[in-house]
From TrEMBL:
This is Sigma-70 family RNA polymerase sigma factor. Keywords: Sigma factor, Transcription, Transcription regulation. Pfam families: Sigma70_ECF. InterPro entries: HTH_Sigma70_ECF-like (IPR053812), RNA_pol_sigma-70-like (IPR039425), RNA_pol_sigma-70_dom (IPR014284), RNA_pol_sigma70_ECF-like (IPR011517), RNA_pol_sigma_r2 (IPR013325), RNA_pol_sigma_r3/r4-like (IPR013324), WH-like_DNA-bd_sf (IPR036388).
Length: 190
C-alpha cells in the first residue's frame, strides 16, 4: 500500500499517468468503505456502493489543492466525502418527497456506543447535524468519528491519518461517542 502514497505524490507533482494507475490500486478499499457506510443505511436507500465510490472518486480527483500526505490521509478524505455524498443524497430525496420516508443509519458499528433509540437507528440528517455541531466544538473528534464510523478505520489507522497517538484517538473517540449519544437520543417529554 506504499504504492498509494507514491502514486499520490507523483500525481501531485504533475504526473497525470499516476492518476490512471491510482484508481485500480485504491478502488477495492474505497468500495469497502462504501459498503461499510451503506450497511448503516436504511434498506430503502437508493444509492448503491458502486455509485458512492464513483462519486467520491470523481470528487477526490477534482481536489486541485489537496496536499496528499499519505495513503491514510487519502482514505480519510474519501470517507469524509462519502459522508457528504450520502447526506446530499438523502436531502435530495427528502426534497423530492416533501418530507417522505426518513432514511436512517445504525449506530451499532460505533464501537460500543449504546443506541440512542430503541431500534438502534438514527436519521442520517440528524447524524450529520450532530457531526456538524461536534465539528464546531471539537473538529478532531469529528474527523475521528468520520474515520471510524464511515470509513471503518482502526484506531491505529486513524492515528496515522491524523498524526496523533492511538491513545489520543481512543480518548477522543470515547468523548465523541458520548457527545453523539446525547445529541441523538430521543427527547422524552411529559
Amino acid at each position: 500500500m506504499g504504492d498509494v502514497t507514491q502514486l499520490l505524490a507523483d500525481w501531485q507533482s504533475g504526473d497525470e499517468s499516476a492518476l490512471a494507475r491510482l484508481m485500480p490500486v485504491v478502488y477495492e478499499e474505497l468500495r469497502r468503505i462504501a459498503i461499510r457506510a451503506m450497511r448503516r443505511e436504511s434498506v430503502t436507500h437508493t444509492l448503491q456502493p458502486t455509485a458512492l465510490v464513483n462519486e467520491a472518486y470523481l470528487r477526490l480527483i477534482r481536489q486541485e489543492r489537496a496536499d496528499w500526505r499519505n495513503r491514510a490521509h487519502f482514505f480519510a478524505i474519501a470517507a469524509q466525502l462519502m459522508r457528504r455524498i450520502l447526506v446530499d443524497h438523502v436531502r435530495g430525496r427528502k426534497r423530492q418527497r416533501r418530507g417522505g420516508d426518513q432514511v436512517v443509519v445504525t449506530l451499532d458499528g460505533m464501537g460500543g456506543l449504546a443506541s440512542p433509540t430503541s431500534s438502534g437507528d438514527v436519521d442520517v440528517l440528524a447524524l450529520d447535524e450532530a457531526l456538524t455541531k461536534l465539528e464546531g466544538l471539537a473538529p478532531r473528534q469529528c474527523r475521528i468519528v468520520e474515520l471510524r464510523f464511515f470509513s471503518g478505520l482502526t484506531v491505529e489507522a486513524v492515528a496515522e491519518a491524523l498524526g496523533i497517538s492511538p491513545i489520543t484517538v481512543k480518548r477522543e473517540w470515547a468523548m465523541a461517542k458520548t457527545f453523539l449519544y446525547r445529541e441523538l437520543r430521543p427527547t422524552r417529554e411529559g
